[in-house]
Write a structure and sequence with these properties.
The protein is of the alpha+beta class. The chain is 24% helix and 25% strand. It has 14 helices and 30 strands. The strands form 7 sheets. Strands 20-19-18-15-12-11-22-21 form an 8-stranded parallel sheet. Strands 3, 4, 7, 8, 9 and 10 form a 6-stranded antiparallel sheet that branches. Strands 23-24-25-30-27-28 form a 6-stranded antiparallel sheet. Helix 8 runs antiparallel to helix 9 and helix 8 crosses helix 12. It is globular and about 75 Å long.
Length: 581
Amino acid sequence: MLLEAVYHRPRLNWSYAYDHETIHLRLRAKKGDLTEVFAWAGDKYAWDATKELIPMTLFTSDAMFDYWECSSVPPYRRLKYGFLLQKGHERIWMTESEFVTERPANPNRLFEFPYINRGDVFTPPAWVKDAVFYQIFPERFANGDPGRNPADVQPWGGTPTPENFFGGDLQGVIDHLDHLSELGITGIYFTPIFTATTNHKYDTEDYMSVDPHFGDVETLKKLVAACHERGIRVLLDAVFNHSGRTFAPFVDVLEKGEASPFKDWFHVREFPLQVVDNIPTYDAFAFEPLMPKLNTENSAVKEYLLKVAEYWITEVGIDGWRLDVANEVDLEFWRDFRKVVKRANPDAYILGEIWHESSPWLEGDKFDAVMNYPFTDAVLDFFIYGTLDAEGFANAIGKQLSRYPLQASEVAFNLLDSHDTPRLLTLAEGDKNKQKLAALFQFTFMGTPCIYYGDEIGMDGEGDPGCRKCMEWNPENQDLDLFSYYRKLIEIRSSHPALRTGTFTFLEAGPQGSKLAYERRLGDNIILVLVNTEETAQTFSLDVEDRNWENLFTGDTVRAERSKLSIKLPAYGYAVLKALL
């Protein structure tokens, strides 16, 4: 038994309250080392009457480690616990301070979950588990009100540049909500819509007004109401890490220097404000002079931004915020932000833009979720680039599942491309078979899938500005087969709870392999997903229950015999199978 690899600590993703009654415990061990693991748990004040051994299951693995997990519903909402590790006939007890061969005589030196305080339980909005999001870059989606066009507007569908405008607006979104409803979308994430000088609007000039090129507050209210009538939630983008150069307080500092009452709203290293050797004398996003970093530790800045966060929820009725450059803002600001937002709407979804491992922001006091770019990387590496084999992909996904509490994984924002990346079809070098398989995993995995506008009709594009081209509305230029495929994916996901909240288990993911099979299970609702990423046909032989399985794409039924299910899939083939009772 390699005890050096065994790890557990209280809180975070290792010991946490899943809900107001249930505690989840996890333990890490060397991959393939332990054969059984038990949690030895009970109430610290009634140990003898409540202690029990709880079997733990191997819930995921990565390249180096296994992760074991169990649930406990303690009678008094608190838990003392240790672990019993087994490898064949070898047995080791793990306490908070040591490993011993004999069961500890008393619980004093075991781990402790002191109490499930309801206010501490991380509870993301339940609706997010069922949502399918669609990301819209407003300036490029649809021009619904030409009267709001910028003076230098370009003809729709022209070549995008970092500076040009095509006249997309909020009325254009309203005009095309039928497209989203037909697809099955239940949530929209808008990149910024507030007054700014650029086409992307990440350089906010006025946080309290809709950009006049897009509409006004009444237009936004009309859009939100129309979305809500269709069962579509609305997420706006909050740029609180930095403002724009034309933001009034920053303009005042530019003009008055150290005499400005707003000089502490920003991180100024040296006056006057200027750019020296391509680096501003003030902190800015990515050294971009147009985007000065806000000092969110300043009480006046914090008060202003928190009023912004509350205003658009209470005044317009939006359903949450996506937070730009979220990991560069101080944590105390986000704690206060969460309190303000949840007070305004307890069901609001708070989504942070973080591209890496994000545990510190997913402890229940800051965000509900982050944009799940580690998921994106794993999917692209396996399905698109082919730089991971099936085993490597399973390890990457396993690592990601091990990092966060279950409730965070259930609402993770799973995207495959965005306004910040090349489009999925371009990454796939135009291979729509690869795009389809990547999307299939996205829509049958745990978390909330998001489609970048136009992916569903075959739009391509390199990185910014190519990924921000105008939406194609001419049906003759749309891939309607691809649209039907995405619509079917959403229909299958929406019709089967196991694909949204069920357990996730890999059934086949071998070294140097191009075959992938996994199970989603929620009670009696069992779904198998089989994927062949090879250019030739391959046969799957899986250990499953003897029953009939319905292919949710074709309606065909296949029978498992003698606990074996055998299916041959063509090149780039796939099957989503539902167990029939």
